[in-house]
Structure formats: C-alpha cells, structure tokens
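batch_manifest entry 22 of 60
target: 2,3-butanediol dehydrogenase
source organism: Arthrobacter jiangjiafuii
requested by: lab member K.T.
priority: normal
notes from requester: please return tokens only, no post-processing; we will run our own comparison against the previous entry in this batch. if the run fails, retry once and flag.
--- input ---
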Amino acid sequence: MKAARYYDRGDIRIDDLPEPVLSPGTVGVDVAWCGICGTDLHEYLEGPIFAPAQGQPHPISGESLPITLGHEFSGVVYAVGEGVDDIEVGQHVVIEPYIIRDDVDTGPESRDYHLSPDMNFIGLAGRGGGLGEKVVVQRRWVHPIDSSVPLDQAALIEPLSVGYHAVERSGAKAGDFALVGGAGPIGLLTAAVLKALGVTVAISELSPLRRQKALDSGVADHALDPAVADVTEEVRRLTGGKGADVAFECSSVQAVLDTLMEALRPTGVLVVVSIWGKRANFDMHKLVMKEIDLRGTIAYVNSHPAVIKMVESGQIDLSPFITGKIGLEGLVDEGFDTLINRNESAVKILVSPSGEGL
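--- output ---
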C-alpha cells in the first residue's frame, strides 16, 4: 500500500509498505480521507516534535522515524480481529488517534487518560496513520459513525473534538458571549461548537477570507479585523460594556493573547487551545486584578461520542470547512505548501490516500 512517511524535518516521502497485520482486539480500516493538521506542518517545518527521532523509539509504540503521518481520518472497516464483536465490516468509522499505555483507565468515566505518561498519537508516534491506505487500530479508539455523514466530513470529527473539549474546559453555556482569537481550522471549529450550544460568538482574525468563512459558515455572529477595529472596545460595545464571558486563544500569537485578556470581563475564563512553540509574555497583574481564570486544553477526552452525535443530528455542518481535496502524491506541493505559504486561502485540506473520491 501507499503511505506518506515522515523521515525528518522537511523530508516526507511516499513509500510502498506492506499492509498492516490484524491482531486480536483490533480493527482494520480502509482510510477514506485524512486531514492535514497544523501539528503535521510543525513536524515538517520544525520537527521532530511529537514524532520520535531516529534511534529514540517511542516508549509505547516502540517506533521511531520514519513514521506514517496523519491523525485526522475517517474510513470503512475492512476486517475485525478476534474478540471484536460490536463492529462490522463495511461500517463507517472515525478514529480517536491515541497511543496510550494499556494500564491506563480509558473507560467512559475517565477525564484524564489524554494526560497520561508518554501519551502520543497514531500518525505522529507510530502505529500507522491516516496518510496510508490502510491502518489497523485498537478497538477502543474506533468510533462508528452513521453512513448518512459523508466520509469527507467525518474526517473533521477529530479536530472538531479538540474544539469540543476546549469549550467543555471553558464552562461556556447558552447566552454567554465568547471571543475566539484566530479563525484557522481549530478556531472555526471551536466557534462551531459554541454556536451549537447557543453562545454568541465573535472571532478576531486578520485574514479577510477567514473572517468571511466564519460568517458564511454561520459559526460567528461577528468577525472583527484587529488591524482596523479595537477588538476590546468592539466586544464591550457588543456586550453592553461588560466584556466577553469566555475567550479562546487559537493562534499562538502574543498580540492575540493580550487582546483576549483585555476583552474578557472580570472573572472571565481564558482557554489556551493553540500549541505554543515559545514562551509567552503574560500580564499576571491583569489576571489577578480581573480574577481571570486561565485554563489550558489539549486534544480531547471521551469527547468523540458527543461530537459524533452533534454532527449526525445536524447541529454542526462540517462541509463549509473542507476547502481542498488532493491525492497522496500532492501532499507536499498542493497540501503542505498551501497551508504553510497561503494558509489564509484554505481551512481544511483533505487527502485521499487511495485516490478514491477525487
């Protein structure tokens, strides 16, 4: 089978690999679509980061570079291993792409398995990936999804779950006013969850194309240009002088972080969603004097079932966020290059490893 393999910084190759081997308790999936994530771009430009460097195998997967990339993916079950009796061949599925130690409690009541020692991701630390034609995954991480949801949209369940968990962490509720800093994929999908819950959403974003996408997709009530408008004053105007109840930092940009701190009301909640590659300057005095609640969030934890229900029920329409579809051979030139150098023109670019659907 064909797979996109990450060898080192700036080095991705399309390789021919043996098909993965099914084992007891696993599910074989024909990958339909895989999204390109910002994490993949960071690995390509600055890595290895999550990916284990050559000669330094990951302590759970036992693998090191090269690895198959891709952790945002959907597909169709082609085989089930011994002991798997609740999934059938032909079912549509999405993957919760964790690599977690077997002795960690990942049951339905767990709220912290995603924070367990040595946690990593399928498609970043081994065990195959969504940028290969086939993958074999432990049953625990395979989530059926109704066939009424197109498989291309289903590939966005994983990043949507990131937004869902961030909103959970914020405590946002219907009637609140939220300010989202950055209208990239995660910012837009976080806004989609907020709108589905009945929250009023403003997005601050420099790119006119992304601001328009936020409005056209219906995930933002207000799209603010921080180069033109005083975002803090505009938020206060929209909230009767109060300020935002919750804010989401989705850009890893210092100026955005500063603006969110200013625009929050006293006792507001600031959730940092983006991955920062450097230390931020933080106004601790403002945090103290406004009693701001600062919260981090990473990935998701038991989020996929609720997110899948939101999509299946039509609460969230993922179709507006798919802005490109490519084959495996175009991964770097058409996919990575666009998202690195012309990212304002794209939200989510999907890859079909087999070429089907293009």
